[in-house]
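Trying the structure run again after the queue cleared.
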Amino acid sequence: QVQLVESGGGLVQAGGSLRLSCAASGRTFRNYAMGWFRQAPGKEREFVATISWSGGNTYYADSVKGRYTISRDNAKKTLYLQMNSLKPEDTAVYYCAADTRDPPLTIATMYDYWGQGTQVTVSS
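Done. Tokens:
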């Protein structure tokens, strides 16, 4: 079992950058594929990015490809999401998620464990 806590959200102007972190507790973080999802008001939760347990494989939604980078540090039990060239349409609550199945895990129901979310707001 793993517990997840996101941080790093905030308010940023369009074109700016933010880095989200997701700290995991538990001894087996390296056994989990990890993902980032986001949910804007009135919309369904949507896939953003996913990374394999080793960090060797990543996969992105088309809407963030080339702007976002997912990474992980298994020694620190932390997942990251570097977000550059932010747009107002990136505004959402961002969630990290974990599951023991093999990636790419691009559907929310594939994940067993979720954090509480962190708000990202991009102003125009």
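The radius of gyration is 13 Å. Worth checking whether this holds up in the mutant runs.
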